[in-house]
Amino acid sequence: MMINCLLLVIGIVLVLWGADRFTDGACAIARRWNVSEMVIGLTIVAFGTSLPEFMVSFFSVLKNSADMSVGNIVGSNIFNTLVIVGASAMMMKIPVERTLLVYDIPISMLAALCLYFVAYYDGDIRRAEGVGLILFFCAFLYYTFWRARKNAPDAEHETAKGDQMSVLKILVLLVVGCGCLVYGGQLMVDNAAELATEWGVSERIIGLTILAAGTSLPELATSMMAARKGSDGLALGNAIGSNVFNIAFVIGICSIVRPMAVSDISVADWFTLLACNVLLWLLAFARHSLTSWKGAVLLAAYIAYLVYILI
């Protein structure tokens, strides 16, 4: 058991370090294109920080652990919405753009609803439904980049680091980052599954707690660092974008590779996934900002959910 715990920690470290390297490379490319922080957060950074969820869910599906795979995504999205946004708002007041309220947060809600209907009512996620999720993901990307072209950013969004980083260094960061993500993700899934068996707990609980928190650490670190530096668009866009990526891209790809039979995700888990999006929208809509007390409400909601599923 101690060896499994050690290997699980090593896997988490590799995934986090790999995601950080990959995100650095991806952001350097994005800033060469001169797009806004919000768009970078919703797309490039969200993709980079969602890679741990993808690798863990992908390997879980290959090992016929669909409940762990879906539990990881559901738990990660709940963690992103309640903990990451909540902690970022506790650090600084986050102004909320109108487009986030009208488009981005509702799109995240719609993605959660899509996953709920295809997984809960059917009991499984078929290849055709996976293709539908990928098409949803492509539409989200197209809309986001269309909006970026429509609203050209100012020059202040360009950074010296992105301009000075060589193409070779960017490629090295991307390749090394992906390698660590692949190997670390496999270590996490293998040892989490063994621990679940030894502890006598379900794959759902492991996916919703240990794997969800572990794979969401890149989003947490990225958003909190962005909030600390005053990049509120990146902090909030990263969390919301990651939620869409997790459902539309990760579940879409995994279900195309192998249809997923979902049986252990409870009604309470689905309700929390949907309700946390509504709660975030309501808090953000009030005065179009997220303040420290609103962040505390989000964090308290997560603690209540965690206590419920564990006790």
Layout: helices, strands, pairs:
Layout: H1 2-32, H2 37-62, H3 66-91, E1 94-95, H4 98-121, E2 124-125, H5 127-150, H6 160-164, H7 167-199, H8 203-228, H9 232-257, E3 260-261, H10 267-285, E4 289-290, H11 292-310
Antiparallel strand pairs: 1-4, 2-3
Helix pairs in contact: 1-2, 1-7, 1-8, 2-3, 2-7, 2-8, 2-9, 3-8, 3-9, 3-10, 3-11, 4-5, 4-9, 4-10, 5-9, 7-8, 8-9, 10-11
Summary keywords:
about 300 residues, mainly alpha, A middle domain of Talin 1, two-stranded antiparallel sheet, two-stranded antiparallel ribbon, 4 strands, about 85% helix, about 5% strand
Question: What does the average pLDDT come to?
Answer: 82
CATH T-level topology: A middle domain of Talin 1
Strand content: under 5%
What is the CA-based Rg, rounded?
A: 18 Å
Termini Cα gap: 23 Å
What is the number of helical segments per DSSP (H or I, 4+ residues)?
A: 11
SSE succession: HHHEHEHHHHHEHEH
Relevant CATH superfamily: NCX, central ion-binding region
Number of domains: 1
Classify the helix fraction into a percent range: over 70%
Q: CATH class, please?
A: Mainly Alpha
Low-confidence stretches: 155-162
Tell me the total number of β-strands: 4
- Strand order, sheet with most strands: 1-4
Largest sheet composition = 2 strands, antiparallel
Principal-axis shape equals globular
**Second CATH tier, the architecture:** Up-down Bundle
| Secondary-structure class | mainly alpha
Would you mind describing this structure in some detail?
- The structure is a single chain.
- This protein has a single domain (2-310), classed as NCX, central ion-binding region (A middle domain of Talin 1, Up-down Bundle).
- Helices cover 83% and strands 3% of the residues.
- It contains 11 helices and 4 strands, in the order H-H-H-E-H-E-H-H-H-H-H-E-H-E-H.
- The chain has helices at residues 2-32, 37-62, 66-91, 98-121, 127-150, 160-164, 167-199, 203-228, 232-257, 267-285, 292-310, and strands spanning 94-95, 124-125, 260-261, 289-290.
